[in-house]
């Protein structure tokens, strides 16, 4: 077992089909009720779990309701408000700066283009893609988080290592109608089965397609390291 199909196109198609069957309701797990909340939540989620972000934003979104609230916030106070979030000091600065830019350049609205979003401080392509997809219903790329990066490499779908290169590669082989859902499927499977340190290959719906399967391969293609 653990052998990929003959072409990457066929591999991607089969992986997507099986993961759709396994996770039919897979979607974004961050809590938000508008585009501003979505942007803030995604900014906070970098290097932090969605569960932790949702815990913090439950109170944060009651205290700060508008772009003006964030733009006028004291950075130190905001940092304390998100104190359990990874890199909270930097993220507080990013949020205040981004809110000020939105007030000055975008009439207080969350931008709806990749270029404008990535001009906001602390916003890269991953964050921008999420905001476009779930805030504006615009899909022009693939969100490459740690799960997408790990699964795509383990399954032999890509050999690239950097998120930007992985996204570009995936956009050439993942059918465009699946760009948004591909991320959610990878996240669901990455959390449930194909975890970073100890994947449950014996209970994996794509194990027979996986050239990294611990059941009959020695190397994790995601990390390039041998299995323990």
Automatic annotation (TrEMBL):
Gene: nth
GO MF annotations in UniProt: 4 iron, 4 sulfur cluster binding; class I DNA-(apurinic or apyrimidinic site) endonuclease activity; DNA binding; G/T mismatch-specific thymine-DNA glycosylase activity; metal ion binding
Keywords, ordered alphabetically: 4Fe-4S, DNA damage, DNA repair, DNA-binding, Endonuclease, Glycosidase, Hydrolase, Iron, Iron-sulfur, Lyase, Metal-binding, Nuclease
Catalytic reaction annotation: 2'-deoxyribonucleotide-(2'-deoxyribose 5'-phosphate)-2'-deoxyribonucleotide-DNA = a 3'-end 2'-deoxyribonucleotide-(2,3-dehydro-2,3-deoxyribose 5'-phosphate)-DNA + a 5'-end 5'-phospho-2'-deoxyribonucleoside-DNA + H(+); Hydrolyzes mismatched double-stranded DNA and polynucleotides, releasing free thymine
Protein name per Swiss-Prot or TrEMBL: Endonuclease III
Enzyme class: lyase
Binding residues annotated for [4Fe-4S] cluster, in chain numbering: 194, 201, 204, 210
SMART domains referenced in this protein's UniProt entry, alphabetically: ENDO3c (SM00478), FES (SM00525)
Family: Belongs to the Nth/MutY family.
């Amino acid at each position: 077992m653990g052998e990929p199909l003959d072409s990457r196109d066929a591999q991607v198609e089969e992986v997507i089909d099986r993961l759709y069957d396994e996770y039919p309701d897979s979607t974004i797990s961050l809590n938000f009720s508008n585009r501003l909340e979505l942007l803030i939540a995604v900014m906070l989620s970098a290097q932090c779990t969605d569960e932790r972000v949702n815990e913090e934003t439950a109170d944060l979104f009651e205290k700060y309701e508008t772009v003006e609230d964030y733009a006028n916030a004291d950075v130190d106070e905001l940092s304390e408000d998100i104190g359990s979030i990874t890199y909270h000091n930097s993220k507080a600065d990013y949020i205040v700066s981004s809110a000020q830019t939105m007030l000055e350049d975008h009439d207080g609205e969350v931008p709806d283009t990749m270029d404008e979003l990535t001009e906001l401080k602390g916003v890269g392509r991953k964050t921008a893609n999420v905001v476009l997809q779930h805030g504006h219903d615009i899909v022009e790329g693939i969100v490459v988080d740690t799960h997408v990066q790990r699964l795509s490499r383990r399954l032999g779908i890509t050999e690239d290592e950097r998120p930007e290169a992985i996204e570009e590669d995936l956009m050439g082989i993942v059918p465009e109608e699946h760009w948004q859902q591909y991320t959610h499927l990878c996240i669901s499977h990455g959390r449930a089965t194909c975890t970073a340190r100890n994947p449950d290959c014996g209970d994996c719906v794509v194990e027979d397609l996986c050239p990294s399967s611990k059941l009959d391969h020695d190397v994790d293609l995601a990390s390039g390291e041998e299995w323990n």
